[in-house]
Recover the amino acids of this structure.
């Protein structure tokens, strides 16, 4: 496989066509304005915006919190099991179109249970979509329950209690929402309990928060994967550790620009992370809000960063499989398929 022989002009098509996994997608962040309006109408909810265009025009964020305010308001239209199913089913079809073959999907139950929506309504709707994707789209998917870090640890424990009767419908837990002022240690006990229960563990860290939060997510929460993590480059020891321990970062380039983590894509550090040997992946985070699904994240990032070529395309797709929470045998099958795809590309196919 001679990746250097692949012309740069063919890269965009390769990025779109290559098989890949998505490991950092908040399902509530896939809710398109059109769907928000349709659900609001059928559920008798009045929105603060008069039209789809007016809502979309409000998507001008200055930081993470300015986004979260609109994101939580948008999620307020979700009421019935059918709403959760339809949201997830729309995303899964969109992922299939991007040649995603596996996704690990975050959901924020506290956003819904706090409004009186039963936990069962949320997870049963999402899980039905995941099952249907497996059967009808041949797409592998699983769910990861995220605790909202701006709420208390007691609230997270209560959510875990509500979730345990549905233990077979999700594979792990994560930690999201406003990072500043809500450090990993706030959730050490509930993550410890989840670990005892055999759940897989991930956490957002080093998006807006400092590199220290990444270290603490690893040491105090025992996170197996770090969501975002881009601020690790501020600590060379941490970068060396991430590379040596093969700890994956689920990086979301379009999100990082929309939330002003980087001023523009041309300043993004994904190329430097890969060059440092970090197991970085590309993901969409909240695609309905940040201007693109997974393939747009790939193509826009490669357009903006000349240091990214066919070798990095292969590496990012391979990393997405390696970092996923599927059995090793499944990873091996998917990586063999990826190798065959790139061998074909480099042979001029
Ligand atoms: N919830 C949805 N998207 C998020 C992000 N990028 N960071 C933290 N919490 C989130
Ligand atoms: Zn996220």
């Amino acid at each position: 496989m001679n990746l250097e022989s692949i012309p740069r002009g063919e890269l965009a098509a390769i990025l779109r066509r290559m098989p890949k996994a998505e490991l950092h997608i908040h399902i509530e962040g896939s809710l398109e304005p059109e769907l928000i309006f349709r659900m609001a109408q059928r559920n008798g909810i009045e929105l603060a915006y008069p039209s789809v265009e007016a809502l979309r025009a409000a998507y001008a964020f200055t930081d993470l919190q300015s986004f979260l305010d609109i994101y939580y308001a948008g999620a307020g239209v979700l009421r019935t099991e059918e709403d959760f199913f339809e949201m997830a089913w729309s995303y899964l079809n969109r992922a299939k179109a991007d040649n995603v073959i596996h996704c690990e999907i975050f959901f924020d139950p506290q956003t819904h249970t706090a409004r009186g929506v039963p936990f069962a309504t949320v997870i049963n709707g999402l899980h039905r979509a995941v099952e249907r994707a497996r059967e009808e789209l041949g797409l592998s998917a699983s769910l990861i329950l995220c605790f909202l870090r701006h709420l208390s640890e007691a609230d997270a424990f209560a959510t875990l209690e509500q979730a345990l009767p549905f233990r077979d419908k999700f594979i792990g837990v994560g930690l999201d929402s406003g990072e500043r002022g809500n450090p990993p240690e706030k959730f050490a006990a509930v993550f410890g309990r989840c670990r005892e229960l055999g759940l897989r563990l991930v956490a957002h860290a080093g998006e807006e928060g400092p590199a220290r939060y990444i270290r603490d997510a690893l040491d105090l929460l025992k996170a197996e994967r770090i969501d975002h993590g881009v601020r690790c480059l501020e600590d060379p020891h941490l970068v060396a550790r991430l590379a040596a321990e093969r700890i994956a970062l689920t990086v979301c380039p379009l999100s990082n620009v929309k939330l002003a983590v980087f001023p523009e894509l041309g300043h993004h550090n994904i190329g430097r992370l890969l060059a440092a040997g970090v197991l970085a992946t590309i993901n969409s985070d909240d695609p309905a809000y940040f201007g693109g699904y997974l393939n747009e994240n790939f193509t826009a990032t490669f357009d903006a960063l000349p240091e990214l070529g066919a070798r990095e395309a292969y590496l990012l797709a391979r990393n997405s499989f390696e970092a996923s929470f599927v059995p090793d045998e499944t990873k091996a099958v998917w990586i063999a398929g990826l190798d065959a795809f790139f061998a074909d590309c480099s042979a001029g196919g």
In short: The beta strands are 20-26, 100-107, 140-148, 172-176, 200-205, 225-228, 248-251, 279-282. The CA atoms of residues 157 and 190 lie 6 Å apart.
